Amino acid sequence: MIIVYTGQNPDTLKLAEKYTSHIIPFSWCSDFSRARNAGLKEAKGEWFLYLDDDEWFEDVEDILRFFKSGEYKDYQSALYVQRNYNDWAGTSYVDANVGRMCRLTSETEFIYPIHENLFPFAEPYRQLDSYVHHFGYIRNEQALSTDPKFQRNLTLLLKSYGKETTSHLCTQIAQEYKSVDDYSNAIRYCREGLKLAQKEQRIHTYELWLQVQLPNLLILSGDREAALKEGERLLNKPRTLEVGRAHLSGILAGLCWELGEYPKGVRYARRYHKEMENLRRHPDTAKRQNGITITYESAKERAVTAYMAGLLCASKAQEVSAIGELLSWMPWDKEEQMLTQYENLESWKEGFPEQWDDILGGYARLRTCSPYVTLQKALHMERKGMAAETEKYFNQCMERCPEGFEYQLVKLAARNRFSLKPLLTQMPSELWDECIEVLTAQTEVSDMGEFLQGLEEGMREFPVYVERLAQRFLKAEMKQESSGASQLLALSRQYCESVITEAGYIYKEEILKDLDFYALPYKYKFAAAMQTAIGCFEAGKYADCISYLEKAAHTAPDMAPVIGALLEYIKEEVNRPKEPVSEEFEILGRQVKQVLMGLMENGQWEEAFGVVNQLMALLPGDPEILKMKQEIIAHRL
Q1: For the sheet containing 55-57, what is the strand order?
Q2: Please, what is the average pLDDT of the chain?
Q3: Which of 154, 383, 479, 607 has its CA 20 to 30 A from that of 583?
Q4: Are 297 and 305 in contact (CB under 8 A)?
């Protein structure tokens, strides 16, 4: 190990001495090549490898294997991967293949004062999988152009550019401007670099980078029309290699979707696939064509967005025959990549309902275990009226439901009366609550009753979840402007009964004796206050009813419109003139009263509650009946 020490901190020097005694002191002179060449002169090995002091290898097994196996004898140089992070958490990064290993000869040296390279970097070379972590390019977004590293690098680059204008220097300058979001200057040096590169006989790595970055930079600058024009021009240039053509085709497919060039978009999505298939069949070519961050591997990462753009363009252009083809090219086995596109795929499908047979048919022909595709197959079979096949795919989906699509399985179950047990067994209540929010938003109020009936059998073992869904549907129905006063009262009663029933499944009996218990959620407090208010209203105790309605409003402000409508109903009832009761009704009323008293004596409170409501219609305002109803309500609570 050789360390070239360019600093002045004695602590750093002591740390270096722990690892090697071979330390070369060097006075910094703003020239990276001169500093590296000072260390290179001391190197006596057959091969040479270098890295920066802010980089470290994750794993060097691939490099060890390269030498221990004797494979190195077939090569003159090698590349490893520099993983450049965009954030300190290490969640976002860009991999670059860097040529930092070579057979050591008397001609080997570093060139360029900044972004220095080993020269000559002879072929053949080997691409290794080992990579170093590098956080050196993370910059403060609030002060990009004043970043010290940017200022240092750009000063050195422009100084060199003033002495010798090369496409390599243009690439480095463009990279620096791109890193601080100065797209105008980055585009300028990209164009200049490409002009200079055409004069060179060999197609270097930096030319590949320039070819792909020019349209990208134009997109970042906001000029998509120019990006499309440049991309198309570069795609057809004889100096554009296969990896470059793959990247450009993917970029152009997306641009065509944004600019409304739909038939072109389909063509470029197909062109991307063609180029990638050719590279897949020729792995040596794919490995050899590296343009800093522009590689075969980075081209593969464009697959999802390229094919997604192609699908959108195909639907817009009415080229439905391309739908199945494009779907079959999606990397369904790369679930992490595909997860980010599920929402876009749903939006695409919902945007073209007239093409559902073609879209779902395309999914049905795919051979993949993707949970999202399995769901689409279930929908396809349902649409075809094939019940057994629908249930087969539905059951597969419940084992691996794509995240965020649980609501679609519930809808499928409701329509076909399937059991949701495997899904609900592993679904936390928070996720179910999110699910029923979506279901409520997507279900017409008039269809909610039928929807619940469709789920009744399949959710029998999950009464809490049934009640929560029913409550959400009841709330939606209560908030309808068309709900009449009597209907609103009935719905409110159902809602309260559902909430208190749910509470009975979750909480111990002693807690529910006092629904004002401080630890109970607001929903239960609201239901208790609302149910008591309804009881007071039916007992004619209007002042108490209003008091409890106010309490209910305080615990659930979102139910204020419902409570306001009930208050208006109470006001109407209080002011409505009472009609005299006929003698026949009085006789019948007395007979019913005897029946009611018998039920109360036997403790049959539910039956008594139904009878007392009928009795109040016969003998409204009878104080004895009001008193009996109050007692019945108290026992029911």
Answers
A1: 47-49, 93-103, 77-85, 125-134, 55-57
A2: 89
A3: 607
A4: no
